[in-house]
Amino acid sequence: MTYPKSRFTALVAGAAAAVAIVTGCSSSDEAASTGENTDVCTTFAADHNAFVALVAAGPGTAENIDKWTSDKQAAVDKLSALPGTASGDVASSLTTFVGALPADTLELSTTDSESGKAFVDNAAAVASACEADATTITLDELPRSTFTN
Asked: What are the boundaries of the signal sequence (predicted)?
């Protein structure tokens, strides 16, 4: 009678091992297919929000225009470097976002600006791609106003 019991024990152990292997492979496959862009998505949100904060703050005074312009360009350069560090839909959406940035970032702030609308829409597309990749990000709103004399 010990033979059937040891055979049963071996079958149970084998089944448990098979379940562990299948479960282990399943969860590692899942981890590999989601969240692979977490770092770049988080970096995008931080760099986007830093740029938006610069735009919102403005130069302050005429003496600060050169520094403000330089700081904005540095922020754009950081954003421009991100597509090469991403993969899949996140990389595609980042490439579109960066490709639509105007040479003169002042264009982004005007109410009827096509580049401002593209900035907002393309940033939302990056956020959606990041969310589909298992990373939720929060983006600050780009201030857009009409300049008057």
From this structure: 1-31
The model carries a pTM of: 0.73
CB 141 within 8 A of CB 56: no
Same domain, residue pair 105 and 62:
yes
Q: Burial of 20 by CB count in 10 Å (0-12 exposed, 13-18 middle, 19+ buried)?
A: exposed
Say if residue 66 is in the same domain as residue 106: yes
Residue with token string 């597309």: 125
Spatial CA neighbour of 40 closest among 84, 96, 99: 84
Q: Which residue segment(s) compose the domain that 1 sits in?
A: 1-33
State the average pLDDT over residues 19-27.
Answer: 37
Is 149 inside any structural domain?
Answer: no
- Taking CA atoms, 8 is separated from 5, 14, 16, 19, 22, in Å, by 5, 10, 12, 16, 21
Read off the pLDDT band of 4 (50, 70, 90). low
Instruction: Write the single-letter amino acid at 63.
Output: E
